[in-house]
Structures are given as structure tokens and as C-alpha cells.
């Protein structure tokens, strides 16, 4: 008798709608399970329809793993991708897709938690680097070992809590639209 091959999990099969215990936990989460943070620049937050967004992750063959900074808003059927800054113009004319403007607000899971039905981690952001790790990668650190790019940020600042994921916005765009991304990153 031949063994049946297991189909590897996909973003769509794993995250299109929470099931069972995870669904119950997200629905029962308190208001403290999420935080409202102001987008202060330094990264782009792309808001896509959930089902096409998950299908685009599958089409782009993005591995199911942490490090991509992906949040599901099951309440509104949206997928939020926190990516490096400079790609907002790529999404400018895409229907049902928007980029959160600087000064806008984003609901994210509270640090250390899974979130709620309105904001649940699908892929956690990359870990914050220590001063030594950041310096080894050429980052800027202040005299007292603090990240110079985070000095002076308000505690309700998105950049103070969430780092950009490893997801390449061009790959996501190409998988979602079926078109080649023809522009490069620009300062935003």
C-alpha cells in the first residue's frame, strides 16, 4: 500500500479563518490583547484583502514562519504586512489595497500575546537586535547602547513596537497582481 503524501500547509489553509481553540481565544481576547499604534514612518504597512493576500503569499512561496510581520484582521477581512519603507507607490492604483499613511493608526497585537479577532499575529516580526548585533550589521546606536533610530519615539509609535518583516513587497505585489513590479523603492 502506497503512503499518501502529506500536503504541506499553506498560508490560506492555515490562516484564512481561525478554527477551534485559536478562534475561541481570539474572540474571547480582552481589549488589552491589542494596541492602537501611530504609524510614524520608517516602514510601510500594506493593507490587503485577507483571502487574496494569503493566496499571494502562497503564490510567492513565502514560507510559513515567523519573521514576516503579518497581522490578520479577521473582523474586517484584512491582512496587514509590515515591510521596509519605500514601496508605497507600488500599491497606489491597486483596488482594495492601501498603504497606511504616516500619522495613521494601526491596531496590532499587544507585545507577547497572540492578539484578538481584530489583530492576530500570523507571522511575528523579526526580533529586535541587541546593540552589539545591530552595530555588527552597521546600525546606529547612541552612547548608552540605545538604538539611535528609536530615540525619542512615543511609546504608542508603531516603529517602537513592530519591526519590518523579511517579506519582499515586490514579491507580494507580483503574486497578488500577476504583474512585474517595475519601480524601485523611494523614500517615503
How big is the Rg?
Answer: 17 Å
Going by helix content, strand content and strand pairing, the class is: alpha+beta
Biggest sheet layout: 6 strands, antiparallel
Low-confidence stretches: 129-134, 139-152
So how many helices? 6
Query: Order of SSEs, N→C?
Result: HHEEHEEEEEEHHH
What characteristic shape results from the CA principal axes?
globular
In order across it, which strands form the biggest sheet? 5-2-4-3-8-7
Distance between the termini: 58 Å
Fraction in beta strands: 15-25%
Q: How many beta-strand runs?
A: 8
The overall average pLDDT, rounded, is 82
Percentage of helical residues?
10-25%
Can you put this structure into words, describing what you see?
- It is built from six helices and eight strands.
- The protein has helices at about 10-15, 20-30, 50-60, 130-135, 160, 170-175, and strands at about 35-40, 45-50, 70-75, 80-85, 100, 105-110, 115, 120-125.
- The model is unreliable at about 130-135 and about 140-150 (pLDDT under 50).
- The chain is about 25% helix and about 20% strand.
- It is an alpha+beta fold and about 190 residues long.
Amino acid at each position: 500500500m502506497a503512503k499518501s503524501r502529506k500536503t504541506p500547509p499553506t498560508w490560506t489553509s492555515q490562516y484564512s479563518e481561525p478554527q477551534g481553540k485559536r478562534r475561541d481565544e481570539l474572540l474571547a481576547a480582552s481589549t488589552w490583547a491589542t494596541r492602537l499604534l501611530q504609524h510614524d514612518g520608517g516602514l510601510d504597512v500594506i493593507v490587503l484583502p485577507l483571502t487574496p493576500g494569503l493566496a499571494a503569499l502562497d503564490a510567492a512561496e513565502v514560507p510559513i514562519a515567523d519573521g514576516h510581520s503579518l497581522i490578520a484582521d479577521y473582523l474586517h477581512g484584512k491582512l496587514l504586512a509590515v515591510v521596509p519603507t519605500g514601496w508605497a507607490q507600488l500599491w497606489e492604483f491597486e483596488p482594495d489595497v492601501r498603504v497606511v499613511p504616516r500619522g495613521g493608526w494601526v491596531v496590532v497585537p499587544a507585545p507577547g500575546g497572540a492578539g484578538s479577532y481584530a489583530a492576530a499575529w500570523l507571522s511575528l516580526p523579526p526580533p529586535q537586535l541587541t546593540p552589539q548585533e545591530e552595530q555588527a550589521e552597521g546600525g546606529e546606536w547612541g552612547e548608552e547602547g540605545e538604538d539611535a533610530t528609536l530615540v525619542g519615539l512615543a511609546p504608542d509609535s508603531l516603529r517602537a513596537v513592530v519591526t519590518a518583516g523579511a517579506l519582499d513587497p515586490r514579491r507580494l505585489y507580483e503574486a497578488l497582481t500577476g504583474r512585474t513590479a517595475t519601480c524601485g523603492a523611494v523614500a517615503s
